[in-house]
């Protein structure tokens, strides 16, 4: 059985007239009749009862008409889905983010993308920078948002989205709360709560380099992952920490002050695997870049 034969069969089944059916499918009537006869022989069943005055469907013909309509519906739906997939209007995309990266406009961008492309399934996972880059390389993730270290991006494509200045966060009863801004000299000797170096080695090193350039040193460092862990320790009076500006601090009893000195920024990158991304991923990357008024991610100067 060929789709062409089913098409001819449906034309006759709808018109119940071989002449009109032949005109509908743009062939002569004799070849159409031959194809219907061949189909009936292949199936071993009469599909039409015909005489000189009319054509009627047999019970077998009625059943085949129903099934044939469903077959063509599925074919049309498949073709439409493939077309939309090629345009990026349907499919799936897996996105990773750091807690600090989502404390920005990224949730709005994802919401807008889902609204523009409701048939695209967006899976979002909270992951550290190292985990994101590992999953990007293995194909478990399509796009990541993180404060990645540049030498860890050598085999990935990336785009700098934005940078955040750091503030000093401290308990509300800390002596430095009385100051409008603080210097690194003010922080010298304070117990510093900081993220582990393994996830952000360049930022970690640049923070301590800023102290060393002034020949001063913070007190013993307490490493903890995630902004929620950092703020928990600050609220408990365990020390002070540098947090990116506009960070939503959920806990009470924490105060921030700007830094008077030059200090490393928290740089947030959009990262994806090298090569030709799918249409869905391409649309998503471009929508994010457009939101931040950046050049196309596929421009010649990709790495900025």
Annotated CATH homologous superfamily of the largest domain: Periplasmic binding protein-like II
How many individual β-strands? 12
Distance between the termini: 57 Å
N-to-C SSE series? HHHEEHEHHEHEEEHEHEHEEEH
Strand order of the largest sheet: 4-3-5-12-6
Overall mean confidence score, pLDDT? 87
> What portion of residues is helical?
40-55%
The total tally of domains equals 3
Estimate what percentage of residues fall within beta strands: 15-25%
Query: What general form does the structure show?
Result: rod-shaped
From the coordinates shown, what is the CATH architecture of the largest domain? 3-Layer(aba) Sandwich
Cα radius of gyration in angstroms: 32 Å
Biggest sheet overview:
5 strands, mixed
Question: What is the CATH topology descriptor of the largest domain?
Answer: D-Maltodextrin-Binding Protein, domain 2
Structure description:
By secondary structure, the chain is of the alpha/beta class. The protein folds into three domains: 3-87, Orthogonal Bundle (Arc Repressor Mutant, subunit A); 91-163 and 267-291, Periplasmic binding protein-like II (D-Maltodextrin-Binding Protein, domain 2); 166-264, Periplasmic binding protein-like II (D-Maltodextrin-Binding Protein, domain 2), CATH 3.40.190. The protein is 42% helix and 20% strand. The protein has helices at 3-15, 18-24, 29-43, 59-87, 99-102, 106-116, 129-138, 184-187, 201-213, 227-235, 279-291; strands spanning 48-50, 55-57, 91-97, 120-126, 143-146, 156-164, 166-171, 192-194, 221-223, 241-244, 254-258, 266-273. Mean pLDDT is 87; it is low at 300-304.
């Amino acid at each position: 059985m060929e789709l062409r034969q089913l098409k001819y069969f449906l034309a006759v089944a709808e018109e119940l007239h071989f002449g009109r059916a032949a005109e509908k499918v743009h062939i002569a009537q004799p070849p159409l009749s031959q194809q219907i006869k061949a189909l009936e022989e292949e199936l071993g069943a009469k599909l039409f009862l015909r005489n000189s005055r009319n054509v009627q469907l047999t019970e077998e013909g009625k059943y085949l008409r129903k099934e044939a309509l469903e077959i063509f519906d599925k074919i049309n739906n498949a073709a439409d889905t493939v077309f939309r997939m090629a345009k990026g209007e349907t499919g799936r995309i897996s996105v990773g983010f750091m807690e600090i990266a989502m404390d920005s406009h990224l949730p709005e961008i994802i919401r807008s993308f889902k609204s523009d492309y409701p048939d695209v399934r967006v899976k979002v996972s909270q992951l550290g920078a190292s985990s994101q880059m590992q999953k990007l390389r293995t194909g478990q993730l399509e796009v990541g948002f993180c404060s990645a270290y540049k030498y860890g991006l050598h085999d990935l494509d990336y785009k700098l989205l934005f940078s955040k200045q750091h503030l000093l966060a401290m308990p509300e009863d800390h002596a430095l709360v009385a100051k409008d801004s603080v210097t690194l000299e003010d922080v010298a000797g304070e117990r510093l709560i900081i993220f582990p170096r393994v996830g952000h080695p360049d930022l970690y090193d640049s923070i301590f380099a800023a102290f060393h350039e002034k020949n001063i040193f913070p007190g013993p460092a307490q490493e903890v992952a995630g902004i929620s862990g950092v703020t928990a320790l600050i609220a408990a009076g365990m020390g002070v920490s540098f947090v990116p500006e506009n960070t939503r601090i959920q806990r009470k009893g924490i105060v921030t002050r700007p830094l008077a000195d030059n200090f490393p920024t928290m740089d947030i990158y959009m990262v994806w695997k090298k090569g030709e991304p799918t249409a869905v991923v391409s649309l998503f990357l471009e929508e994010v870049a457009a939101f931040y008024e950046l050049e196309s991610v596929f421009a010649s100067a990709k790495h900025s």
